[in-house]
Amino acid sequence: MRIGLLTDGGYPYATGESRLWCDRLVRGLSQHEFDLFALSRSAEQEAQGWVQLPAQVSRVRTAPLWTADEDILGTHASKGLLARMVMGGGGRSYGRRERQRFTAYFTALATSVCTAGATSGEDGAAGASGGAGFGERSEDGRTGRTAAGVVDAQFTDGLYGLAELAREHGGLPAALRSETAVRVLEAACRAPGTGRTVQTATVPDFLAFARELDRVLRPLSLDWYDEESLGAVDLCHATSGGAAALPGLLAKRFFGVPLLVTEHGVQLRAHYLAATDTPLSAPVRALLANFHGRLATEVYRQAAIVTPGNTHARRWQERCGAEREKLRTVHPGMESGRFTALGESGDSGPDDTLVWVGRIEPAKDLIALLHAFAEVRKAEPDARLRIIGAPAQGPEGATYLAHCRALAAQLFPDEATDAHAVGDNPVSFEDIGGAEVPDLSEAYAAGGVVVLSSIVEGFPISLVEAMFCGRATVSTDVGAVVEVIGGTGLVVPPRNPRALAGACLALLRDPERRARLGAAARARALELFTVEQNLAAFRGIYLELISHAPVRREADTVNADGEPRPFATPPEAHVQGPWTASGPAPAGTADPTPGWAADPRTVCAGARGTGGGDV
Length: 615
Description:
Blueprint: E1 2-8, H1 19-28, E2 33-40, H2 43-47, E3 57-64, H3 81-86, H4 96-115, H5 147-169, H6 173-176, H7 179-190, H8 196-199, H9 203-216, E4 235-238, H10 246-255, E5 259-263, H11 267-275, H12 282-302, E6 305-308, H13 311-319, H14 340-345, E7 353-357, H15 366-379, E8 384-388, H16 395-411, E9 427-430, H17 440-445, E10 449-452, H18 461-468, E11 472-476, H19 481-485, E12 490-492, H20 497-508, H21 511-528, H22 531-548
Parallel strand pairs: 1-2, 1-4, 2-3, 4-5, 5-6, 7-8, 7-10, 8-9, 10-11, 11-12
């Protein structure tokens, strides 16, 4: 079958999220054909280029989410005020009827967004506390529709109306930043029933929100929605929610293509976490939270199946209205081969060393780990802590690493001659690839206990790698840690150095317990978190979805009433063999049945006249 793989800021680019997982998926399911529809996040990401694509990737379509409106899709929209009021994306003029349609659709969308935080009696910024306002429903006895469903209908009417307008008339960017759009936003924010924070929005807030909304809705203006692009695929697989799923929503609406959504980290949660670090005002953050909440609800509603990467993500999706029948937890697949030698060695590691492996950033809470290690040193003076990893990109990561180094020197003044000394200091900061730690496997081999001290975590990759290595672990109870560990390691509350120190001491002093936990951890990781189990799960899901999808027949196989024409396709076309090849009928046969030379791929079960491969 032909799969439309929808990505946002990842595959096929060499940098970005989920690129490794997507590459393993495409390479592992080589019996299928993949079309990539990728959204890029920055000029730097595009400059890094693509990863090497396998043969089963038939084509790639890309579009940026970061360019200015006049650069979108290579167009040059006029910049004057009057032009912005009457122009759509692509430089095409909107007539009076199109302007009326835009106003009506955008009003419906804006009204839904502005009232989203208030539908459950909460402030307009309610979404930042977990999505309240769009996941709770109360029944309307007259029609069976929920009370919140009326507002949801406004959102979907506006969203799909704008998509149809963009498809017919060349795009939306200039219209979304027009004076008309700003006036609609102002009226919607001032209307009765909106949240308190939203009501305080000013004109600069409307302009900022319109700019952010333009970028999020950029996929609506792309030229991907025709029979040769998304209309040609058998299944859309969005590798995240949010903007990546928008093309999948439109492919389903315009062509009936089923949608599968995979989220290892819920996009709505990521938006809430990132919102606190932006310079946007409170009303703009509230409006964006409301919009992303509404979009998440619609994505989960339209998806045939949603595959969270862990139970933590699944709970978020249920909170946003995802139906439990649609949810299938599929853990990310990770390569275990490079850890096989260490995992099968039976070595429980040095009795006096703790090791931490990962990306150095504030969310990893190395400050608490250093304070916990100070408690460990009081009980075990020979203990050592090795922190192995590089700082996160940007000035924040470098600053945090410098702060951690200074704290280590301060907590252990007897071992360090100054703030930069590393000779006798029991805490070392090391990079993978050096003489001491040549590769990742050696990093985990360096300690008897692997520690994770995070205060924010999605799916803990370093923890799974430690499990593949057969290492005992001590972790904080955040994200999907408990689900991953499953009783094969010790878990303590986050931001609690004393509890972290106690758990580390318990394992350092008991090598037999470390060995038992490490063996159990490796067995669990091999059962649940390998690439093979991930591929097997998606192989089955693809076949299940395509088995329920309607077959779209070629025009020459149906009559004027749309009914199948008898014998339009000969039964031989279903059987592999030389007689299915294009060309004249074999010598000595009667006149060939019409359609003798038909391409057998067009009649495979589940194929929709697109030339898809095996099903």
